[in-house]
Amino acid sequence: MHSSGRGDDPRLAELVEQAVRLLGNVPFTVLTGAGMSTDSGIPDYRGPDSPPSNPMTRQQFMGSADFRRHYWARNHVGWRHLRHALPNAAHQALATLERRGHLAGLITQNVDRLHESAGNQNVVDLHGRYDAVACTNCWTVITRQQLADRLEALNPGFIERLEAAGKVRIAPDADAVVEDTSGFAVADCEVCGGILKPDIVYFGENVPKERVDRAYRMVDDGGALLVAGSSLTVMSGLRFVRKAAKDGKPVVIVNRGTTRGDDLADLHIDAGVSETLSLLADLLPPR
Fold it and tell me: Most-buried pick from 26, 147, 187, 219 (CB within 10 A)?
């Protein structure tokens, strides 16, 4: 069922009541995507206001020093924006629902860690996390802040010059649109000199098997599945919707616009996640 609840549509409360009837009897699993974080000022990949996006593949990153320089220059700008982002009402609603005993687990396709910041504890960061960096040779892990300090020392004033020129535009996943990165110096692993890579699953890269297995267990543990803020365009998230539907569990999707999983959903609420999930949290008392 596809239903619209845009803006101040009086039908939204009615639609959320339908969602309560589908989700409220047993703890349910949640799958979230980039639409969760747009109200925190983080752009979506596919939303109507999203900047053009051509995400880098792992093959490009590992195979070309030029690609790595371009990536780290953009990330050096973009991550500073992401680390200051705060959880929005949708994140707070899911944290409230977990505290009240309604969530069997939360699977997020986002790397922004805003679910954890809001207070959710049982979270699978399916595509990794923006705040960690690993060496691809010796697997030493450092924080993104440690790398930022090194990159700042290697490239003093880089961000300030871009900002002064008005040439910074924020993109998804700790990225930014920076046209000229030719003079940017990249840092390698201090332990072995290997290539440093963010702890993020790139497009075309496989999610680690143990992470996928844990997410599937969460779907098994839940009596229903709620999808929030994802168009389900990539199989990485869609497979969990297919699993829940195959097992006969109710599927509720909250997302502006159509999704690739609509034909599997019992209810699709075409509305913003912040207002919808806030209403849902209001209607579901502690278990």
Answer: 219
- The DSSP result for 144-155, as a single string, is HHHHHHHHHHHS
E-only strand ranges, the chain: 2-4, 28-32, 103-108, 123-125, 128-135, 141-143, 169-171, 175-177, 196-200, 225-228, 251-254, 267-270
Number of separate domains in the chain? 1
Whole-prediction pTM: 0.89
Q: Strand 169-171 to strand 175-177: parallel, antiparallel, or no bridges (unpaired)?
A: antiparallel
- Please answer whether residues 220 and 234 qualify as being in contact, where contact means their C-beta atoms are separated by less than 8 angstroms: no
- 269 within 8 A of 276, measured Cβ to Cβ: yes
CATH code of the domain containing 99: 3.40.50.1220
**127 is an active site residue:** yes
Q: What distance in Å separates the CA atoms of residue 191 and residue 258, rounded to the nearest whole number?
A: 47
Using CB atoms within 10 Å of the CB of residue 58, give its burial: 0 to 12 exposed, 13 to 18 middle, 19+ buried.
Answer: middle
The parent domain of residue 182 ranges over: 2-283
Phi, psi of 160, rounded to the nearest 5 degrees: -60, -40
Identify the CA nearest to 227 among candidates 117, 90, 99. Answer: 90
Question: Which residues, given as ranges, of the chain have pLDDT below 70?
Answer: 1-9, 44-54, 165-179
Instruction: Tell the residue number behind the tokens 């930014």, with chain if given.
Output: 176
Q: What is the pLDDT of residues 45-85, one digit of tens each?
A: 554 444 445 677 889 999 999 999 989 988 888 887 778 88
| Given 70, 76, 102, 127, the catalytic residue | 127
